[in-house]
Design goal:
With 319 residues, the chain is of the alpha/beta class. It is built from seven helices and 19 strands. A hairpin with a 7-residue loop joins β8 and β9. It comes from Sphingobacterium pedocola.
Length: 319
């Protein structure tokens, strides 16, 4: 069992940096070498000289960042280890979206696991989360609050079957839209799914590289004017711009309560861990220390006081 190095991964103005391997994890600004956990825009940015990610993450990034040089990408499979300097790196499924990865970094006998965004709930549209033993768990804390309990997604999506009114369903284009399409296909089969033109290319990538078939049609301006049981999936900006849309029920899929306000139905479907799933991950990974990122880890620190060291990696926030 090696020593835990407090500055193994540090937050800089460009993002989380590991000097021992000379690389960044999910950097916000262009860097020489970037490890990317998944393709959401708050984790994957263009401009890096070398981008290392899972195959599907690189496909999403190539779609979104057309000006990025193709030769800068290096796709790595899950469970395939490689070295940057003396740091051994391995990707494991994170269960967040298709291609999302936890990043295990091993150095001098100590294991540091960066979770990225992750979820334990079942999701047929992406690889299931894999528990990994580690000495340091570097975890997101988006919903690290005992009062947050994500409901069963099947029960949530089934609420949409209680009405045959046409529906505008707001959701994030990558990951959430495909998960919702599959859930609607399976549990609300009477619904006809239409997707916004900005979502359609992501659906096509899932069609090619995903695990389950998605039944949907591309939206056009005429389809919602008549008939019933039609669901139009739109990205957040479109959803917000049509806040006065008539003759449709407005729904937004999210784990955040604030995003359920002023909608006709609530739909609590999240792609992040809630409190209980976070604790389950910690128990399974059995870390000696927990470093928190992407959220507020104060309640986690209080919960493990005297048991496990919990510290916040962010320079700009404190417990």
């Amino acid at each position: 069992m090696g020593e835990i190095i407090a500055d193994f991964l540090v937050e800089t103005s460009k993002g989380y940096y590991c000097s021992y391997g000379d690389f960044y994890v999910d950097p916000l600004m262009p860097v020489q070498t970037a490890l990317i956990s998944h393709a959401h825009g708050d984790h994957a940015r263009p401009g890096h000289h070398h981008i290392i990610a899972t195959n599907t993450t690189t496909i999403f990034m190539r779609h979104r960042f057309a000006k990025q040089e193709l030769g800068s990408y290096k796709a790595i499979g899950y469970n395939e280890s490689f070295f940057l300097a003396e740091v051994k790196i391995t990707f494991f499924p994170a269960g967040h979206i298709l291609g999302s990865a936890q990043i295990l970094m091993e150095y001098n006998g100590t294991r540091y696991l960066y979770t990225g965004d992750y979820k334990l709930q079942g999701d047929a549209t992406c690889e299931p989360f894999v528990f990994v033993k580690t000495d340091v768990l570097i975890t997101e804390t988006t919903f690290a609050n005992p009062n947050v309990v994500h409901p069963d997604p099947v029960e949530e999506i089934s609420k949409l079957a209680t009405t045959n009114h046409n529906m505008m369903l707001g959701c994030y284009s990558l990951g959430k839209a495909q998960r919702l399409t599959h859930l609607l296909n399976v549990y609300c089969p009477e619904k006809v799914i239409y997707v916004h033109h900005n979502i359609a290319p992501i659906h096509r990538i899932y069609d090619t590289h995903g695990f389950v078939p998605l039944k949907y049609e591309i939206y056009n301006r005429k389809v919602m004017k008549d008939g019933v049981n039609k669901v139009y999936l739109v990205p957040p900006l479109t959803f917000n711009s049509y806040f006065r849309a008539k003759n449709v029920i407005r729904v937004f899929a999210s784990g955040w309560k604030r995003l359920q306000h002023n909608n006709d139905l609530s739909l609590y479907i999240s792609d992040h861990v809630d409190w209980e799933d976070l604790l389950q991950c910690i128990e399974a990974s059995n870390p000696r220390e927990i470093w928190t990122v992407h959220g507020d880890g104060a309640m986690l620190k209080s919960y493990f006081e005297g048991k496990i060291v919990v510290r916040n990696m962010a320079k700009t926030s404190t417990f």
